[in-house]
Amino acid sequence: MVVEVDNIDRRGAGRAVTWRENELGNKKKLKLTVPKTLPGEKVKVTVDRPERKNRKAILDEILEVSPDRVDVPCPHFDKCGGCVMQHWNYNTGQLGHKTSLVKQALEDQGFDPNLVLDTIGMDEPWRYRNKMEFTFAPDGALGLHEQGNFRKVISLDTCLIAGEEMVEAAIAVAEWVKDHQLAGYHKELHEGLLRHLMVRQSFATGEMMLALFATEGPEGELQKAVDDLVARIGEKFSQVKSFLWIVNTDWADRTQAEKIHQLAGRDFIYDEMAGYRFRLWFDTFFQTNPAQAEKLVELALELGKPQETEKMIDLFCGVGTFSLPFASKVEKLAGIEIVESSIESAKRNAVDNGISNTTFLAKDARNGIDEIIESFGKPELLLLDPPRSGAGGKVMRRIGRSQPERIVYVSCNPVSFAEDVKELEQFGYTLKNVQPVDLFPHTLHVECVALLTL
């Protein structure tokens, strides 16, 4: 078939609609997914089982190429699932698409899409990530998951969205694994030693953390190999200030800890953002694109206009990324976060930065608001930065009933964001504007900062 791509789906593949005749000669609509294509391109494809309503097509040839198509610099682009839009011009394609995603999400909830401003992009949209989680294949190879196949790992010798020193450190670990013929973890058989390698580095301080996740501790028969690894890393990477071996035997495929062994250095590194200093542990949530995250903070301050006579609540405050910059501009601030380790980090970060007008509470958002208001009083300003799933209707209604004058919403998911702010209309709030910010170039993710007023 020859079809024209008219859109991009949520996984970054092109979408096309065509018509085919069934066995009775009636025309039926056929929706096709065509990977690695762009809107406006005319393509020749092969379709297996075209009698179905939705099919994934095999791209045979691009007959009319989009003017926004660019050469892909990464040698792993065709297979790696890390970033799916490298073939799309960053400024004329990717950023416009992200703006349209936010507009569509708001329009679906009845808001005026003209409230959405153009997405703020990066001057240099490469090497922006300060944290990467690599996965070991059963044969010990280290890389990222294959696109669309979470069970297969693509071995990497570079990654163009991660810091160069981070990639070099990961390659050094991969070489050590190969030299000692160590096995990776088999997700289906639930056997093997090495599961993940987490690398995080502060672009501000240069400090790096390496965390190896394994099914056994680093002692016994492994001790000699581990001593060799520590020596190799210490010799080549003086910036590694935290080197951890983390035991995880759980079946769930995530970076969690049952026991932590410090191979070298501290159990945290120092980072800086917006002029404030933070301690980061292996499980600390911290924005992975520091340059754009600082823009998020600046925008939030600009929209929220905090005053020195005001009280403020920072909901889903994490380790205080927004709390600290806002606390220096208000009378007092209360941060609420359900993860206790993050709250302890927020308290330490406030002390490290000489900030004394903060209260941090480890509690779920809805009940935390009630407890804070009872002792703290009604806030004039409230900021929330929830996870991708959003805050949810119950939390948003609780926010609405607390009646802060201004609400700043920082979101990493336009759909849940639009659903959440819709809940506030019944409490008298007006959405003023929405500013998308691209923290993840070459992926489909987009953040946004919005202001609502009572």
Helix percentage range: 10-25%
Number of H- or I-type helical stretches: 9
- State the end-to-end distance: 54 Å
Given the C-alpha coordinates, what overall shape results?
Answer: globular
- Total strands: the figure is 22
Q: What structural category do the secondary elements indicate?
A: alpha/beta
Rg over CA atoms, rounded to whole Å, is 24 Å
Model regions low in confidence, pLDDT < 50 over at least 5 residues: none
Share of β-strand residues: 25-35%
Q: Order of strands side by side in the largest beta sheet?
A: 9-8-7-10-11-12-13
Report mean pLDDT, rounded to a whole number.
94
Largest sheet at a glance?
7 strands, mixed
Secondary structure: elements and pairs:
Elements: E1 2-8, E2 14-21, E3 27-34, E4 42-46, E5 54-56, E6 58-64, H1 90-108, E7 131-136, E8 142-146, E9 149-155, H2 164-179, E10 194-201, E11 208-214, H3 223-236, E12 240-247, E13 259-265, E14 269-273, E15 276-280, H4 290-304, E16 311-315, H5 323-327, E17 332-337, H6 340-352, E18 358-362, H7 365-376, E19 381-384, H8 393-402, E20 406-411, H9 414-422, E21 430-437, E22 447-453
Parallel strand pairs: 3-5, 11-12, 16-17, 16-19, 17-18, 19-20
Antiparallel strand pairs: 1-2, 1-4, 2-3, 4-6, 7-8, 7-10, 8-9, 10-11, 12-13, 14-15, 20-22, 21-22
